[in-house]
Amino acid sequence: MLFHDIALIDKEGKTREHMNVRVSGAHIEKVEACGNSLEEARAGGGEVYDGRGKLIIPGLVNNHSHVPMTLTRGYGEDLTLYDWLFKRIFPFEALLTEEDMYWGALLGIAEMLSGGTVSFTDMYMRIQGIFRAVMESGIKASLSNGLTGDAQTRLEETAWFRETETLIKDAKTSGGRVIPNASLHAQYTSAPELVSQLSDYARDRQLRMHVHLSETAGEHQECKENYGKTPSRYLADLGLFDVPTTAAHAIFIEGEDYDILRDKGVTLSHQPSSNLKIGSGLPDVKSWRDHGIRVTFGTDGAGSNNNLDMIEEVTLGSFLAKGMHRDPLLFSTGELLTFASRNGALAQGREDAGLLEEGYRADLAVIDMNGLKFQPIYDYGTSLFTNANASDVVLTMVDGKVLYRDGDFTTIDIEKVISNVYRIRDEKLATLASGS
Ligand SMILES: [Zn+2]
């Protein structure tokens, strides 16, 4: 497939118009200046995509999600965090089966594909249902189940362990699309004895780690009071960061935390919508970057966002940084695109993805900038994280396969997904209402 006469953002972060991007198999074969007309290109055979008025980017990586939470999107707004979690989310989640996870995950995956996301890093439960949805849809994912437990918990005896072992086995059949991760839900939902077991297990199994870190002021402070150290120091001392780790939120990290996270090679993931909606506060992403920590973006679950729009998320993160630091140079378009694509791919361990360059995986998204809100265009690249959102994405490709185009999915029966999601909603609400 040839993307013909299209705009892109180059390695230096500069926009280049009138470019050709040729995809062969699962890889980007050629990126070069466009030297012929559409008619001439079409005469050459193969599928030729008219890229006029459009921007092509490396696909986005959602580096922190709970994808089946689409099922609880909008269920319990205008509540305190405590009431939302304990009165709505936890009772609803307790009813969800592996099959329910499959349908919820498919809805989230469809939404992500329609917004240019090609890969996501997830933490949830009953993950075999999520695995099935990933496999069918063609998207890439790093999957995990968030471990919680007390000092008496024996890791090998948990449902977590069985699910993770099954995932490791199943992922071998995914052609590299699914990467199994280990995951600790958070410092405050686990005992140190269990964290140590998890660290040993992840090292033995050579798994990457995913964790929520210092998301609220309360948990951060409580850890300091209980253990005399910050969550970053505490988890580092328990060996959690001895494998490549993505830590989400990191709003309240302080002092030596920055050095610990950098020295351990921990990637941080920023979820500004969730931080704002839940009222947690905001991290200083400029400080993350200035300390040499790898920055990525995620959407968090649909319950706290409420969409999975990565373009919107990055734009919001950039605007917040500009406002916080009174510095409009935070961050450049090239830097934001690196946070949202290449850095996410690297955090997942996908060295061959996240760049629009020859030889890299053909994980791509096309944004249509013919719409009124973009007119007149001075620069396609700088229009991306100032003016676009998921609904401007018109094509998403993973490993050279078109999975979404002009409102249609090539691998997902979206009507069937929607009807199942409503069935699940109604069933669970009826069960909850009957009190059983
Ligand atoms: Zn989260």
Describe this structure in words.
The chain is of the alpha/beta class. The chain contains 15 helices and 17 strands. The strands form two sheets. Strands 1, 2, 3, 4, 5, 14, 15, 16 and 17 form a nine-stranded mixed sheet that branches. An eight-stranded parallel sheet has the order 6-7-8-9-10-11-12-13. It starts with a strand and ends with a helix. The site of zinc ion has 5 residues, from loops.
Give structural attributes.
436 residues; alpha/beta; Urease, subunit C, domain 1; TIM Barrel; 2 domains; 9-stranded mixed β-sheet; 8-stranded parallel β-sheet; 15 helices; 17 strands; 39% helix; binds zinc ion
Secondary structure topology:
Blueprint: E1 2-9, E2 15-24, E3 27-33, H1 38-43, E4 48-50, E5 54-58, E6 60-65, H2 81-94, H3 98-113, E7 117-122, H4 128-137, E8 140-143, H5 159-171, E9 178-186, H6 192-205, E10 208-213, H7 217-227, H8 231-237, E11 245-249, H9 257-263, E12 267-270, H10 272-277, H11 285-290, E13 294-297, H12 310-325, H13 333-348, E14 364-368, H14 380-387, E15 393-398, E16 401-405, E17 408-409, H15 414-434
Parallel strand pairs: 1-4, 1-5, 6-7, 7-8, 8-9, 9-10, 10-11, 11-12, 12-13
Antiparallel strand pairs: 1-2, 2-3, 5-14, 14-15, 15-16, 16-17
Helix pairs in contact: 3-4, 3-15, 12-14
Bound molecules: zinc ion.
Residues 64, 66, 212, 248, 300 line the site of zinc ion (ZN).
